[in-house]
Write a structure and sequence with these properties.
This protein has ten helices and ten strands. It is an alpha/beta fold.
Length: 328
């Protein structure tokens, strides 16, 4: 295995930093971003923070009523917030195709995408297209959406002279299970919700690597991130005890501490906008910094690290080819 994974450090931020902290006095006027899962949790906080710095933000979510209510909350505090909407169900390839077609069929720049939406450790279920639900929502729907948006991202980069960015929200949970390219739907294995979640989050990192390898020469860079452990709707299927045990295992035992939603959104906002990452991509970040590479699924003492298998370019190519075939 060969890769050019870059493990430089020194962003100036840490696990306690918030989305507002990392943005500081940055002026994002004239920038336009798309955020999936915008109606709540980390997605909503990401939208709010970006809009508060002058960016136009496309709020992409499945439930339009909930998305509208989320936007009302932002506008009540900031009437000048520039918000747009895209209705999309990432668990349906038909919905994703239709949403992407509506978006690219209308004029407008696109400086970045935050692939934030996801589900976690769900009971076994198949999507409407017949794929295991976590693989379908967390990876395959985003793969199709981003694939359709990449030309617009490249066009914007060419016209602005500044690279566009795709931020794929993964998790330290990628270390809980690898993706089996020959059995993504658990047809030949007993289903384990945490293994499936680990596989989907591994796909997220590999997806970022794949985007960066294919599109960096056209001005699009991609970064995978781990937001940290945050109390959101993501863990709706698990008891508090299970969540705490799970996150402690992923994060390095006693070193683990919960983050607030503003702290959880910090790394994805930072990865989308920080000059620190200019000219870089295909990396995995946490706590507003580039994570160390680890040889296996055992984290470093402080709980940080990305498994080498998740940034392997050959495996990223395999996932890309498989995903292309599955979406048709």
């Amino acid at each position: 295995m060969t890769h050019d994974y870059d493990d430089r450090h020194g962003s100036g931020f840490d696990q306690s930093s918030t989305a507002d902290d990392v943005l500081g006095d940055l002026d994002l006027s004239g920038r336009r971003y798309l955020v999936t899962g915008s109606s709540g949790g980390l997605g909503l906080e990401t939208v709010r923070a970006l809009a508060s710095r002058g960016a136009t933000v496309v709020m992409a979510a499945r439930d339009r009523a909930k998305n509208d209510k989320a936007a009302e909350g932002i506008r009540s505090a900031d009437p000048s917030a520039r918000l747009e909407f895209l209705d999309v169900d990432l668990g349906s390839l038909e919905s994703v195709r239709a949403a992407a077609a509506r978006f690219v069929g209308a004029p407008g720049s696109l400086h970045g995408v935050v692939a934030n939406a996801g589900i976690m450790a769900t009971p076994f279920a198949l999507s409407v297209d017949g794929f295991e639900s976590q693989f379908a929502v967390d990876h395959l729907g985003h793969f199709l959406l981003v694939r359709e948006l990449l030309p617009r991202l490249a066009e914007t980069a060419a016209s602005s002279g500044v690279a566009s960015r795709v931020v794929v929200v993964s998790s330290a949970g990628h270390r809980m299970g690898d993706v089996d390219f020959d059995d993504v739907n658990f047809e030949r294995r007993e289903y384990d919700p945490f293994l499936a979640y680990g596989a989907a989050k591994t796909c997220n990192v590999l997806h970022a690597v794949g985007i960066d390898r294919r599109w960096k020469d056209r001005g699009v860079r991609a970064i995978a991130i781990h937001p940290g452990g945050i109390h959101t709707e993501l863990g709706r299927y698990m008891t508090p005890e299970v969540i705490s045990s799970l996150l402690a295992r992923m994060e390095g035992g006693s070193s683990f501490s919960w983050k607030s939603i503003p702290q959880g959104a910090a790394t994805q906002v930072w990865a989308l906008t920080s000059p620190f990452l200019e000219g870089r991509g295909g990396v995995y970040c946490e706590d507003c910094d580039v994570s160390p590479l680890i040889a296996d699924d055992v984290a470093t003492v402080d709980g940080r690290g990305v498994a080498a298998r998740a940034v392997d370019p050959d495996r990223a190519d395999s996932l890309w080819s498989l995903s292309d075939r599955l979406i048709g």
